[in-house]
Amino acid sequence: xxxxxxxxxxxxxxxxxxxxxxxxxxxxxxxxxxxxxxxxxxxxxxxxxxxxxxxxxxxxxxxxxxxxxxxxxxxxxxxxxxxxxxxxxxxxxxxxxxxxxxxxxxxxxxxxxxxxxxxxxxxxxxxxxxxxxxxxxxxxxxxxxxxxxxxxxxxxxxxxxxxxxxxxxxxxxxxxxxxxxxxxxxxxxxxxxxxxxxxxxxxxxx
Length: 206
Fold this sequence. Notes:
The N and C termini lie far apart (64 Å). The strands form 2 sheets. A 5-stranded antiparallel sheet has the order 1-2-9-4-7, with no helix packed on it. A 5-stranded antiparallel sheet has the order 6-5-8-3-10. It is built from 4 helices and 10 strands. The chain has 206 residues and is an alpha+beta fold. The radius of gyration is 22 Å and the shape is globular. It has helices at 2-25, 171-176, 182-189, 193-204; strands at residues 65-69, 83-89, 94-99, 105-111, 113-119, 125-131, 135-138, 143-147, 155-161, 169-170. The longest helix has 24 residues, at 2-25. α3 (182-189) crosses α4 (193-204).
């Protein structure tokens, strides 16, 4: 009996360790050096740690535009657990429902006003109308949105993330612009297949 209990404890500890390891992998990996240099890059200087991509921000975009400085665009961020994005909202535009699976998002509104919100795991909606100078936190992994309800003025925001690659999962595209079968979507949303196909067609044309 004692041997059986010991075996069960060992299995429990093993499974717990595996679960903890998987949770750790959901974020950025801790590094054991000052910074990470891509393979093949032998000499680094200040240029490696400089990102100039924000110089080309559009002055008056006609659609919602996001300009990212993540590990993809700025390799020096690898292992540093930080990234950045500039969000530009023309009048009446929306950053559609989405999630960031690997990080929370801290948004700072530089200009204009935005309606923002997120839904927690109990399906409670948290919303706010923020003004220039305000900040709003979107917790890690939760569905959220930003909407410029002003029909006449644009808005600009900066978002900071606690990951070099926070990831973005757009709900409309993930659900209706992939190969999920129409019947599954129809049953999930309690709508007919024709409606599903109309949604897919609308997203495909964007």
